[in-house]
Amino acid sequence: MRAYFKFEFIQFMFNKKNIAIYVILLFFACFYALKMAPSYDPIEQVDREEIEARFLTREDFLTNLVIDENTYPLTRFAAAIYPEWNEYDKQRLDAIDNNDLKKYAESTYKWYEYSDFMIFRNGRDLLYYNPRYYTAGNLYATEDGHYAYMYSASRFKGYAEGNSDLSMDVFEERTALQTLQRLLHGYLPLILLVSCILFTADIVLKDKRNPTLIKGFPISIWKRLLVKGGIALIGSFLTVVPLSVGFFIIAIQNGFGDLKLPVPIFSYEARAFTMISMGEYLFQNTLLILFWFMLLISLLLLISITIRNEFANLALGLVVVFAEFYYYVRGLGFVKDIQWYPSSYVQVGQIIAGYREYLNNSIELNLTNGLLVMSACTAVCLLITFLISNRRGFKYLR
Amino acid sequence: MMELKNIGVNFSGRDILKEVSITFHPREIIGLVAPNGTGKSTLMNVIMNYLRPNSGKVLFNNELEYTTKSNEVKIHKLVSMMPDQSDLYNHLSGKQHLKIYSSMWDSNPELIESTIKALGMESYVNKKTGTYSLGMRQRLCFAMQIVSDTQIMLMDEVMNGLDPTQVEIISQTLVKKKAEEKTIIIASHLLENLEKYANRIFFVKNGKLDLVEDIYKDLGVNGNAVIRIPEGTAELKDKLSVAYPELNIQLLANSVMLVELPKGGSGILEKVSAFLSENHKQAFSVGKMSLSDLYSKYYH
Asked: Which of A51, A230, A246, B59 is deepest in the core (most CB within 10 A)?
């Protein structure tokens, strides 16, 4: 088995298609690190001018305000809520001027918490989140703003209470680890899963090109498939190598970040954020991606020995990964048990962060259920593959 | 030891192999000879279990047969089939191929170097096989099977694309392997070579394996001398038949004419020689019927 592993691994690493995938990922990583990451423009950023403009406007309003029996109710409302709000903005400005990052984190966390409370609970249709949430066609701008403010409040609270090294790059989530976190929240899992499909699609069927060389090997078909699956899994994880080039470029530009940095995790049940460390967040992402890889690989191995067509491998693998785009609508989890579909867990970072719970109004779309569904599907695929490959009349290569 | 018991293979109603029963022993080189498409490769595929026979079974060392997948693995440790040269990985070197086969069968790694040396592959074995000529590829495939060092070795057209020197080198290697208690089954069209090294040669016809010795006996030519006329014609045959009606005269597909000399028929050789001289046929020889002639006669 060890010899066969070595043989297959050499095949995998010499495969032109696989080399092309790694090269494309390397290009993508460099392009992202050099072009896209520096132009990252977060909605929630450290903007002294914006804070100062808001502070001065409100301060001016409060200074010149005279409240009497004729004062309009909304003016009274503003007069009631602005002093505390402005106090937090004042603290933020002082912290920036004094370069007291800890103090900035503390006042910013309070600012976000207070802002969200005022906008979401007390000021609906009167107060608004950052205008950049209100994009054309976004029916959920307020909800998006609410989530972002809760998230930011939780994040800055974590910075204030933690002992990680702080910087403006950390506040704007620009460090290498935080960039990775943002990418995991976005399209990086999809890129990894598609790479896994591309690696696995031909790992069995390529043997059709060298049948007489391979057929007589003294190793069972089941073991061959296991070895091939293992190689595909290792190969899929090796995508980390080209991608890490981009990671290190970002680390040089904006700092590495800190594995102890807090990452807010939303719980739909508690309607609140809790905190885990960046290290734990990345570990949980890796775990769910590992289970995704195993599911895709076992599925493609099964298709390889039944349908025996590379295009079918690609098509069915992509259907599993992208199926969510077909059925997903916001809030669907509240009315439908989508937690039992493997494809509901494709946005790995969002699952771990609890964002999918928030979007789907469901407590079910979490890591535990994800691992359960993935492992159950993987077990079924492997069991069927085992039974088929051990049938006496089964031929590995026809 | 390998025993084929009543092996029958049928494709679309046509019998490719019919009730084939035969035993192959260690220290044996077996030659399989037949025109293309008569069942040689099918037989090898059945032995490897690449093809499941419609009837019968293959028994290895009196105990193992293809009843389960785990048995198949055990059997494939004992028996190997030479890969086809077109299936080599062009991006790997010859030596890498040899290492793959050696490690897959867990054979003695020293066999790699000794085989490279024995087959004269030192100059190119480290180059990628994509740069190899047909003969080099063929030698590599042979070497791969040698380093696998299995008890039974199946070789389909092993001498294809090889020059006479290489054929001789490979033949010597086969003889050495035979001395190491191996059973070697070769399908080949190099009849003279087979005649020289094979312990038993079978012709495959109508789904049956016919031992050459038996064919000789059946033809009544075993042990008898024949006059072999390379450029025979139907006209010459007719003339000779009229002149010597007691003689058994055959005109083969390869235009060779065989005149069987009966035992104790002294004087006939001189008469036939004179007859041939009169008919301007100076080139002829006397001796046992060659395998090549037998082949032509058998498949005519």
From this structure: A246
Each residue's pLDDT tens digit, A99-111: 999 999 999 999 9
Say what percent of chain A tops pLDDT 70. 100
Quick check: B87 and A11 CB within 8 A? Answer: no
Instruction: Give the pTM.
Output: 0.89
Which one-letter amino acid corresponds to residue A25? L
For B187, the token pair is 């399908």
* Interval B91-146: pLDDT, tens: 999 999 999 999 999 999 999 999 999 999 999 999 999 999 999 999 999 999 99
Element (H, E) at A180: helix A176-185
- Give contacts of A216 with chain B, Cβ < 8 Å: 48, 76, 79-81
Per the CB < 8 A criterion, the answer to whether A245 and A154 are in contact is no
- Domain range for A374 is 2-40+176-388
**Interchain proximity A220–B72, CB inside 8 Å:** yes
Contact status of B80 with chain A (Cβ, < 8 Å): yes
Which residues of chain A neighbour B87 with C-beta distances below 8 Å? 209-214
- The tens digit of pLDDT for each residue in A286-334 reads 999 999 999 999 999 999 999 999 999 999 999 999 999 999 888 888 8
Q: What is the DSSP letter of A69?
A: T
In a domain, A154, yes or no: yes
- Tokens 């190099």, located at residue: B190
Percent of chain A residues past pLDDT 90, beyond the cut: 85
Which of chain B's residues have a Cβ under 8 Å away from the Cβ of A218? Answer: 73-74, 76-77, 104-105
* Cβ atoms A105, A153 nearer than 8 A: no
B128 touches chain A (CB under 8 A): no
Alpha carbons within 13 angstroms on the beta-carbon side of residue A237 total 15
Output DSSP code: residue B226.
Answer: E
Cα B275 from Cα B286, distance rounded (Å): 15
Rounded CA separation A66/A63 (Å): 8
Answer yes or no: do A114 and A151 share one domain: yes
Residues sharing a CB contact under 8 Å with residue A85, sequence separation 6 or more, in sequence order: A58, A111, A114, A115, A118
Would you call B104 and A219 a contact, using CB atoms and an 8 Å cutoff? yes
Q: Over chain A, what is the mean pLDDT? A: 94
Q: How far is CA B219 from the centre of its chain?
A: 21
Distance between CA atoms of residues B251 and B236, nearest Å: 10
Q: Which residues of B touch A395 (CB under 8 A)?
A: 50
* Architecture label for domain B223-298: 2-Layer Sandwich (3.30)
Question: Are B38 and B204 a contacting pair, CB within 8 Å?
Answer: yes
A381 shares a domain with A351: yes
Q: If you classify domain B2-216 with CATH, what class do you get?
A: alpha beta
Place of tokens 């494309």: A24
Examine the fold and report which residue of A171, A197, A222 is the final residue of a domain before the chain moves on: A171
Domain ranges of chain B: 2-216, 223-298
**Which element (helix H / strand E) includes A277?**
strand A272-277
- What residues of A are in contact with residue B84 (Cβ under 8 Å)? 212-213
pLDDT for the residue numbered A397 = 83
What is the total count of domains within chain A? 2
Complex ipTM = 0.85
